[in-house]
């Protein structure tokens, strides 16, 4: 059984790094970079009338995507740590894979994703190619060992499936696979919440200040003298590029 105290300590420490990275990304944001990445026609179609409304939507979209990425990285590090404690897991040497460990005569080579809704078709095909390459390399090095590719999801209720190339494991089954502890997937919730209130209060305060600064800049650059959003100017900034054509 995995050392739960060590897991709790690791999770509590690493969740602080997640919050720090979240704040760092917030503080390095630039209004014009954000506006270039978002669809101004959509905001117009939704009848957005104020700078604050528009910036709320822009920031929500950016931060949601950013936080998913950062938290996914945290969960992947935690999964590697758990397998390290349980079965001597280690960072995989195979291209595009995250983890490997030996157990009961089988070497598991593992790609870790935070959840089951990941990647487009080309990314999924690339993962399959990475698994095939890892199988070939491992068998050349040790032809007598059974190699089992695994695609593991840190959350989700996807049932365990063996598609012939790799096994897909999610949620409770995945954490149990890494630790032999069927309750670990619930036990890690508490350390993940370590000082969450303090971290989030700090984040909300800094986000509010940033949104206020962006609103002032937006009004100065993308509103008319009456304070209305100048959609022509905003769309031209976002998409005007005819003069750049060859």
Folded structure, characterized:
The protein is built from ten helices and six strands. A hairpin with a 7-residue loop joins strand 1 and strand 2 (99-103). The protein has one domain (4-240). The chain has 246 residues and is of the alpha/beta class.
The spatial strand order of the largest sheet comes to 1-2-3-4-6-5
Low-confidence stretches: none
- How many individual domains? 1
Largest sheet: 6 strands, mixed
Helix content: 55-70%
Beta strands, count: 6
Concise summary:
The protein is of the alpha/beta class and 246 residues long. The chain contains ten helices and six strands; from the N terminus they run ααααβββαβββααααα. A six-stranded mixed sheet has the order 1-2-3-4-6-5.
For this entry, give a set of tags.
246 residues; alpha/beta; 6-stranded mixed beta sheet; 10 helices
Write the layout of secondary structure elements.
Blueprint: H1 4-27, H2 31-37, H3 40-45, H4 51-87, E1 90-91, E2 99-103, E3 106-113, H5 121-141, E4 146-153, E5 161-162, E6 167-170, H6 171-179, H7 184-187, H8 189-192, H9 196-222, H10 231-239
Parallel strand pairs: 3-4, 4-6
Antiparallel strand pairs: 1-2, 2-3, 5-6
